[in-house]
UniProtKB/TrEMBL annotation:
Superkingdom of source: Bacteria
Signal peptide region: 1-21
Lineage: Bacteria, Pseudomonadati, Bacteroidota, Flavobacteriia, Flavobacteriales
Keywords, alphabetical: Signal
Protein name (record): PKD domain-containing protein
Keyword Plastid: no
The species this protein was found in: Marixanthomonas spongiae
Length: 568
């Protein structure tokens, strides 16, 4: 049942002999119901669309596990999922997909439930717009790494998040788009969660392994961007520095390694802005942000989603120890397309002696980088710099020149290099600086997916292939799955061909995908799936990607190949 009516609420209450009431807010057209039974949480209804509501991550993990167990114990009978939805008068993402297949509702060429999730249980728990409430937040899901959320108060928040979802799918990085993003991030306080660095949101694996985590994040997970071809980098330039009056002007710019043709979405944060007397944005790629005093904003929510900005910082409140200015850059790609990716970089700049290395990728495919030692502006006298790039190459020495380029190895498995510079200069505030660089074969991916949908022989069908890095908490390595949903009688088959690359240290060796995932067939309407889990790290080579062929005895055949552009 798609619409939760008042009559339904009263009937349930009458049958259960429980007192409950529904309250209509005419302004928002929202029905707020009490919990109707002890085994689930009822949520609001916005625009005739019910939303499941869970009080915490612990609660949704437990609810997911309970439904997962029921589904598995039934032999994966879809009637278990239908009964779960019917018991709650809930119209799910799964149900919407099924109704389109059966012709109960018009087919929407832009709709694909697997863009939101390829976890069948979560697909049953998300509503038809891919949304769910957990704690105080309303979330819209994505089958990649980045999900979005807004603090939920009423149905206007649902409408805002739905509008935002439509906006990010067409984000083009233009000035107008940056301005619009600035409003969504700061006026509406829409934020992101990188679920590829937070195992609490991996409900599927938690249920499969019976590995409860709960509400508290167990540990900090390493950033995940290089696994899907993305890496964020902050480039900075010290424009002026007055150590006597304790003011400094800094230009900060977003740089990144990203798949060719992608249009990354950017977000700058200053986590300790309130520590300083003032931080004023005096110029930047977002005109409406000019004049904003960063130190007056909420450090947990204020975002500058533009390509660059210039700030004037007054740190005169400090008479002795001056803290570092902490600037974070988050870069996202592929938002709400089912293959989203995120990466983050941090700049810690000591303001009373802002000597630091600014880095910029020049050609990531070749491993070529530009390094600049900042903080020499205004100083007098000559200097000598000794650069050590941490890759075993000889130390390079420069005289009175603060820039240098270097080419790193590009191994299959990303490798981190510690770059340092030793400074020879009289009466200078610092004698060394350092940074880190990741270098890898930017045509290799550990995390990516491809999907396909069409109508064949009178019925919709969907295909998906996905490779994902597993959390170390769950054993690490790689998880690969192939999905074939075609609600039509007959035999479905999945066959793999080509190689994936097994990482050993920083090198990789080819291994047949079909040896990891042998051919599989199944009769009936139930979806066909293949899953492979390994503690080893496997990579896809975009120059020679593997393929997966899906066939049905009614003549259908389609081959999906991992298609993507190398990063630069």
């Amino acid at each position: 049942m798609k619409h939760l009516k008042l009559l339904t609420v009263f009937l349930i209450c009458a049958i259960a002999l429980v007192s409950c009431e529904a309250e209509i807010d005419p302004a928002n057209q929202e029905i707020n119901t009490e919990v109707l039974s002890g085994n689930f949480s009822s949520g609001p209804v916005c625009d005739d669309k019910p939303i499941m509501k869970y009080s915490s991550l612990t609660e949704i993990q437990n609810a997911h596990k309970a439904l997962y167990d029921d589904y598995q114990n039934s032999g994966e009978d879809v009637e278990i999922l239908r009964a779960w939805e019917d018991d709650r008068s809930f119209y799910s993402l799964r149900k919407k997909d099924e109704d389109m297949d059966l012709g109960n509702i018009p087919s929407d060429p832009n709709f694909d439930s697997w863009s939101y999730t390829s976890d069948l249980i979560l697909e049953t728990m998300l509503n038809e717009d891919g949304m769910i409430i957990i704690g105080e937040y309303l979330y819209v899901w994505d089958d990649g790494c980045v999900i979005h959320r807004i603090a939920y108060d009423n149905c206007s928040d649902y409408k805002t998040l739905l509008q935002f979802a439509g906006f990010v799918k067409t984000y083009d990085g233009s000035s107008a788009a940056e301005e619009e993003m600035f409003k969504y991030r700061n006026d509406e306080n829409i934020s992101d969660v990188d679920v590829c660095t937070d195992p609490r949101y991996d409900f599927e694996t938690i249920s499969e392994l019976n590995y409860p985590i709960g509400n508290d994040k167990p540990y900090d997970v390493e950033k995940s961007g290089t696994k899907c071809g993305l890496e964020a980098h902050i480039t900075h330039d010290i424009l002026t520095h007055d150590p006597l009056n304790k003011t400094i002007s800094i230009k900060v710019e977003a740089n990144y390694i990203a798949p060719v043709g992608s249009e990354p979405n950017l977000g700058f944060y200053i986590s300790n802005a309130a520590d300083f007397a003032s931080i004023e944005i005096i110029d930047g790629s977002i005109p409406s942000a000019i004049g904003v005093n960063w130190e007056l904003q909420d450090a947990n929510s204020f975002v500058y989603p533009g390509k660059w900005f210039i700030i004037d910082v007054d740190y005169s409140t400090f008479t002795t120890m001056v803290p570092s200015l902490l600037i974070d850059l988050v870069v996202n790609t592929g938002l709400l397309g089912g293959d989203s990716c995120s990466d983050m970089d941090t700049l810690a700049l000591l303001l009373d002696c802002p000597v630091s290395i600014s880095k910029k990728p020049l050609n990531a495919q070749l491993g070529k980088w530009l390094f600049t030692l900042e903080g020499l502006e205004g100083s007098t006298g000559g200097y000598v710099l000794h650069w050590d790039f941490g890759d075993g190459s000889p130390v390079q020495t420069t005289y009175n020149t603060n820039t240098i380029t270097h080419t790193f190895p590009t191994p299959c498995n990303p490798e981190i290099f510690n770059v340092s510079v030793t400074i020879e200069k009289e009466n200078f505030c610092k004698n060394s600086a350092g940074t880190q660089v990741s270098s890898w074969d930017t045509c290799k991916r550990q995390q990516m997916s491809e999907k396909h949908k069409e109508k064949y022989d009178g019925r919709r069908l969907k295909l998906k292939i996905k490779s994902k890095k597993r959390f170390d908490l769950f054993g690490g390595g790689t998880k690969i799955k192939h999905l074939f949903r075609y609600r039509k009688k007959g035999e479905k088959s999945i066959n793999s061909s080509g190689d994936v690359y097994l990482a050993a240290g920083t090198s990789c060796a080819p291994e047949s995908l079909s040896s990891l995932l042998p051919a599989v067939s199944q009769s009936g309407k139930k979806r066909l799936k293949q899953k492979f889990k390994s503690n080893n790290n496997y990579f896809i080579d975009l120059n020679m990607p593997p393929s997966v062929t899906f066939t049905h005895t009614n003549g259908f055949s389609k081959t999906l190949t991992y298609i993507g552009t190398c990063s630069k």
